[in-house]
Amino acid sequence: MKTGIIVYSYTGNTLSVAEKLKEAIEKKGHDCTIEKIAVNEDYDPNNDMGKFTILESPDPTKYDFLVLAGSVIAFSLSPVMKRYCKTVKAIEDKKIALLVTQHLPFAWMGGNRALRRMEKMCTFKKAVICAKEVINWSRKDREERITSATNRIASLV
């Protein structure tokens, strides 16, 4: 099964989780590719919330299973991932796992909201949501939670 992990990562935290997920999927013998959503270099999500241009928007059609990975900014889904989810085409009947990272220690501090937003946009386009995971970056058990989340998602492939 060909899996695509489409990620937007400003700090590199979300990308690092995507890389661990890729390793877990490949250990199961599946093909997996990470594709990054690229925006203009001067974009700062802490100051320019909606002022960016998506320069590279990965095509999900070449994958059998899709993972969308983004971050939480200001207690909500990052504007870049939000725009990608709104504009992405051809995800009807596509099996998708959703993953967000956030600095704060509890999922109710924005992570759950970000996942609900992603899920709503994807199900509107008739995608099939198979898993939802939040990684809380400031937790002491972060590495264990990353391993658990990546193993859960990899088991779906």
Structural class, by secondary structure, is alpha/beta
Beta strand count: 8
CATH superfamily: Flavodoxin domain
- The H/E string reads EHEEEEEHEHEH
Instruction: Give the CA-CA distance, first to last residue.
Output: 7 Å
Strand content: 25-35%
Q: Let me know the average pLDDT.
A: 94
Low-confidence stretches: none
**For the report, how would you describe the main beta sheet?**
6 strands, mixed
What is the number of independent domains? 1
Number of helices: 4
What is the gyration radius calculated from CA atoms?
Answer: 14 Å
Shape: globular
What is the CATH top level name?
Alpha Beta
Under the CATH scheme, which architecture would be assigned?
3-Layer(aba) Sandwich
CATH topology: Rossmann fold
Helix fraction by DSSP (H/I, runs of at least 4): 25-40%
